[in-house]
Amino acid sequence: xxxxxxxxxxxxxxxxxxxxxxxxxxxxxxxxxxxxxxxxxxxxxxxxxxxxxxxxxxxxxxxxxxxxxxxxxxxxxxxxxxxxxxxxxxxxxxxxxxxxxxxxxxxxxxxxxxxxxxxxxxxxxxxxxxxxxxxxxxxxxxxxxxxxxxxxxxxxxxxxxxxxxxxxxxxxxxxxxxxxxxxxxxxxxxxxxxxxxxxxxxxxxxxxxxxxxxxxxxxxxxxxxxxxxxxxxxxxxxxxxxxxxxxxxxxxxxxxxxxxxxxxxxxxxxxxx
Length: 273
Hints:
Strand content: 15-25%
Mean pLDDT: 91
Distance between the termini: 39 Å
Low-confidence stretches: none
Largest sheet: 8 strands, mixed
Order of helices and strands: HEHEEHEHEEEEHEHEEEEHEH
Shape: globular
Strand order of the largest sheet: 2-1-5-10-11-12-13-14
């Protein structure tokens, strides 16, 4: 397919779905991660085990959930356990292969911020008192993301690429990537690898060896390096061997659009009642 046959958002979702393995146990976040994880289940990974924070295990929703409390998750799951069991046994017990997360802000070391966006002030700084107590925007918080990032064996992050979301240093570290210096996980055998992929509507990024600074390893079809540079809040680097992300297949586009259309129709009917 050519780039005119699909949107940038569809390219991002399909690329993220492809990153999932058929035999994986995946802890799924709501929104873009849920969209990608369920697309993977409906295409190349029918046996993937999807787990949501609310305690639903091996969930197979026919519609995309609005939240972790959506009844669709419980009704379509193999079983539902308590939230403490979900975190103590499944997550902290090392049974999650992949944590799939979204975020409001990400920095060069893949730290995530879903807590506060700092107001512009000469005394404000990363995690400073002013930025936290008097933010420009107060966000929903971390939910289970900090635990997922710490304990899942690997983490995949999906988000749209813009200077507002890709910042040199996040205003607040809600969810650990590799810390302020890129070395926070070094020597910590009790936690997972951390972020292994960041997938956006423009490209794919990976942490560089040793430094863990995010670098671009693949550009989506039709995207230029200059577009990525302009959409990133730090001096982004590119891999020496830069590849082009494979275009979506007809099947992937059809399945994704059908899933979203069914979800939209169902939610529209609920609103009308």
